Amino acid sequence: MDLNDKGVIKSTFDSEKIMDVTHVFHLAFSGDTTNTSRTVASWLNNLVEELESAGNPLEYVFFASGNKYYGVHLAELPGEPKTPFRETDPRHFPPNFYYDMEDYAIERKKKGAKWNWNTYRPGPIIGYSLGYMNWLMEFAVYATICKEKNLPMRYPGTPQGYRVLFDCADVDLLADVQIWLSKNPHAQNTAYNVNNGDIFRFEQARQNF
């Protein structure tokens, strides 16, 4: 289904007679960094609004976020990211499609949407993933290259990344959290940082790891 096209979404619902959707879990991502903010947020809007138009009894909408909410991807920011991150931390200067999705959910709720929502903001993710989203796999590829080239496996990132506090998230944990949030209304309509809790800094590890 092409989430860019409301007409395609509508025709899919009509042809499949989809009329009983109550929960939406939106974890789609665009690898096109030039228009990610516009694209991914619009996918959520299009999907939810076409489901509503088709008469589906929506109760819950979940959409995934991450540590980019806190600006970790902005290398030009001065200093180091302030860790640990708190859900109440201020936003960085936009654009950021995490903000677009969250603002959409908040605004729709204010206007009387019957569905509740959640998002989580995990750190680097470890576990099965299509493409390059598995952090551990990236390190495994780097380690393999170092071994093949007979090079020491040194930290490959920035000085800020070498010093900052890390906290990873396992995919099974993230899946469990999505299910739990969808079943507990008292925990809905807000965002959560979700991580394993095994914090570390690369500078405290061995130089060659």
From TrEMBL:
GO terms for molecular function: oxidoreductase activity, acting on the CH-CH group of donors. Coiled coil: none annotated. SUPFAM superfamilies: NAD(P)-binding Rossmann-fold domains. Residues 18-195 form the PRISE-like Rossmann-fold domain. InterPro entries: NAD(P)-bd_dom_sf (IPR036291), PRISE-like_Rossmann-fold (IPR055222). Signal peptide: none annotated. This is PRISE-like Rossmann-fold domain-containing protein. It comes from Coccomyxa subellipsoidea (strain C-169) (Green microalga).
